[in-house]
Write a structure and sequence with these properties.
The termini are far apart. By secondary structure, the protein is of the alpha/beta class. The chain is 38% helix and 15% strand. Helix 2 packs across helix 9. The strands form two sheets. An eight-stranded mixed β-sheet has the order 1-2-4-3-5-6-9-10, sandwiched between helices. A two-stranded antiparallel ribbon has the order 7-8. It contains 14 helices and ten strands.
């Protein structure tokens, strides 16, 4: 494969187990001292982070880093002993990343961008710590799990026993992948046909190779966190009901009062648009924007149209929500009394 994966230069500024917090290096074209709020990107817990920096020109991180100090939390690859990694411990790890970014930059708040399950976690964190988050971007993350489509059907408690699934430890990457394959059983055949159709197109082959490399690089799901995720969110839909508890507190989406951008992929079968809509239907702010972009759960983020449909509009929204509020004009001074 000739294409370079995860091409944006970066440094590790925090390590915890297999997790890493990356700071992306400032490009020469970005002006210094812009005063813009830093951006922390939170990928899914169950896929490798570099789908958000897949290749040059097709990278959420690259687009963000052209304007903002950009950081990303790489959850790492869980080991066998991480079967005891609870939902709360995952959220605490996210909290340490947020605080590290604030210390590094001297900012009072971050713009938090979550993708897929990373968006769900980020939304929960924002509800619990609204003072730390200046703006929240949900990139194809589910909140109303009653609208979860086929994935909700697959884990219906009538036939899906979470205790039996996690009894042996972490959910293996192959188990996770089989669930997604069940959503589109003909996908492997379709990809093969598409490969034959475009095999003489070098640009198309670069895109195909990069995406195949990422989609084959899956990670296990820590057993304890998986149990909470399936039972609390998918099976009970506790998040939008206000019945989900994390870090010893009730998670209330109405406590999210910062500006919210809800990015919905029009053909997403992993996070159907109504599942993402559950966020803006329940937050406590009227400053919400819904951006619908073409494509599926992954294609909308790194596909051929992402640089035209997603990146510019997302950056413009962040720019608008990062500006300090305009000062109200002072009332005219009363005329001076004559002596």
């Amino acid at each position: 494969m000739s294409v370079e994966l995860a091409p944006t230069p970066k440094d590790t500024i925090l390590s915890e187990g297999t997790a890493r917090l990356y700071r992306f290096r400032r490009p020469d074209t970005r002006p210094v001292g812009t005063g813009r709020r830093p951006v922390l990107v939170v990928p899914s817990l169950i896929n490798r982070w570099y789908i958000l920096d897949l290749r040059a020109g097709y990278s959420v991180v690259e687009a963000l880093n052209a304007r903002y100090d950009t950081y990303l939390l790489d959850w790492g690859v869980p080991e066998d002993e991480d079967r005891y990694e609870t939902w709360d411990r995952v959220l605490k790890k996210l909290g340490r990343a947020v605080r590290k970014v604030l210390r590094e930059t001297g900012a009072s708040q971050v713009t938090l961008l979550g993708y897929c399950m990373g968006a769900t976690l980020s939304g929960i964190y924002t509800a619990l710590h609204p003072n730390q988050i200046g703006a929240f971007i949900n990139l194809a993350g589910p909140f109303d799990f009653s609208e979860g489509g086929m994935l909700s059907t697959l884990v219906d408690p009538r036939w899906f026993d979470v205790e039996a699934i996690v009894g042996a430890g972490n959910l293996a990457a192959t188990q996770m992948q089989s669930g997604f394959t069940a959503l589109r059983p003909t996908l492997p055949v379709g990809k093969f046909v598409n490969y034959l159709w475009k095999m003489h197109d070098e640009a198309a082959m670069d895109a195909f190779s990069a995406l195949e490399a990422w989609s084959s690089d899956n990670t296990p799901f820590p057993a304890a966190a998986y149990k909470t995720y399936i039972e609390e969110l998918y099976q009970k839909n506790a998040l939008v009901k206000g019945e989900h508890w994390a870090l010893g507190r009730q998670v209330r989406l109405q406590d999210i009062t910062c500006p919210v951008l809800n990015i919905v992929a029009s053909k997403d079968n992993i996070c159907p648009p109504p599942a993402a809509q559950g966020l803006v239907d329940n937050v406590g702010t009227d400053d919400t924007t819904v951006l619908t972009v073409p494509g599926g759960h992954v294609g909308a983020v790194v596909g051929s149209r992402a640089s035209r449909e997603l990146y510019p509009k997302m950056l413009d929204w962040i720019d608008a929500k990062s500006r300090p509020p305009k000062a109200s004009p002072l009332p005219p001074s009363p005329p001076m009394a004559q002596a």
